[in-house]
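Propose amino acids for all 110 sites.
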């Protein structure tokens, strides 16, 4: 994976109330998670971003451009909002941060 370095904009996302959702709808949660990941990943990749970590319901992505990160977040939120979630709506929190960073030999950000 070719991750950006130098000044990088990060997009961090997670499903609001994911623990409650998984406890309330254990059978539905795998499909909800898969669809969430698909929508967010597609928005990130369509705006030149790179997903570098997925842990449970959270996704971390890196962008060379802050405007690309912002547009990916907007696109993802629009698609998530328009999705016909069952058994109940899924809400996703997103945060954006820009900073100077480097990659370690293990391709992790410092």
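Proposal:
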């Amino acid at each position: 994976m070719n991750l950006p370095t130098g000044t990088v904009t990060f997009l961090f996302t997670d499903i609001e109330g994911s623990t409650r959702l998984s406890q309330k709808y254990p059978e539905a949660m795998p499909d909800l998670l898969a669809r969430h990941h698909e929508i967010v990943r597609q928005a990130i990749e369509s705006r030149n971003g790179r997903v570098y970590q997925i842990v449970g319901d959270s996704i971390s992505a890196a962008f060379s451009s802050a405007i690309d990160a912002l547009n990916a977040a907007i696109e993802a939120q629009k698609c998530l909002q328009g999705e016909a979630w069952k058994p109940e709506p899924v809400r996703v929190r997103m945060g954006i941060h820009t900073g100077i960073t480097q990659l370690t030999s293990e391709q992790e950000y410092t």
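The two ends are 17 Å apart (CA to CA). The helical segments are 18-24, 29-46, 66-82.
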